[in-house]
């Protein structure tokens, strides 16, 4: 008698596998891993969000692709994963921030909003007939004269970071942050550090037209997106630095080759 095939544990969101995993949530995380690279860096005088929009066709209007959103005057978010899911969460975040302003006559806290969004995400992991949101958010802003940066997960988990990344190339970017991030970094240097990290994931396809940058300054407590001209200035700094490194490396290789040839000639003469 042939045994009926065992039901897969990924058929429904509410079914745990024998080792305690929810496969639908893990599939949602995989959607984030395949998304565009979004970076957040906290500085002493603010916080910055950077996204490589990864434009795949020259026919696309780059401005129509939006991966960094303003939530309130003092706060913004960067997204990676399913764009439609991200827009739905951003709309909810904007509504929550306005409800707080109307109810309490003050801006919503960055941590409070991040928790509200994560509570909403978590409800979509425990009911049948729905699926988890296939997107992660980096929520950045200023709260009580301090910069805050939170990462939200499709499961509804929440973590605060000094510098972090979501999307493709996470390992390479985190390696750069682990090596070069310092607690006393300034906002300008934080932008350059974020671009340096993105450069390592683009495989040479690093272009100002595909980079989006949003900053919240501690002094003004205002979120703003950098103009394309401002982004181009920062990108050129990174490109010039890497071109100089490549030239230096080429010169060193030429010197090594020349010294090896001279050694071989001397050996031959002897």
Write up this protein.
- The protein is built from six helices and ten strands, in the order H-E-E-E-E-H-H-E-E-E-E-H-H-E-E-H.
- Helix 4 (170-180) packs antiparallel against helix 5 and helix 5 (187-199) packs across helix 6.
- The protein is of the alpha+beta class.
- The model is unreliable at 1-6 (pLDDT under 50).
- The chain has helices at 23-33, 83-104, 110-123, 170-180, 187-199, 228-269, and strands at 38-43, 46-52, 68-72, 75-81, 135-143, 146-152, 158-160, 163-166, 211-217, 223-225.
- 42% of the residues lie in helices and 21% in strands.
Mean pLDDT: 88
Order of helix and strand elements from N to C terminus? HEEEEHHEEEEHHEEH
User: What proportion strand?
Assistant: 15-25%
Biggest beta-sheet profile: 5 strands, antiparallel
Oligomer: single chain
Tally of separate helices: 6
Poorly predicted sequence stretches spanning 5 or more consecutive residues: 1-6
Terminal Cα span:
84 Å
Strand-pairing-aware structural class? alpha+beta
Structure summary:
The protein is α+β, with helices and mostly antiparallel strands and 270 residues long. 42% of the residues lie in helices and 21% in strands. The strands form 2 sheets. The chain has a 5-stranded antiparallel β-sheet with strand order 8-1-2-9-10.
Secondary-structure topology with pairs:
Layout: H1 23-33, E1 38-43, E2 46-52, E3 68-72, E4 75-81, H2 83-104, H3 110-123, E5 135-143, E6 146-152, E7 158-160, E8 163-166, H4 170-180, H5 187-199, E9 211-217, E10 223-225, H6 228-269
Helix pairs in contact: 2-3, 4-5, 5-6
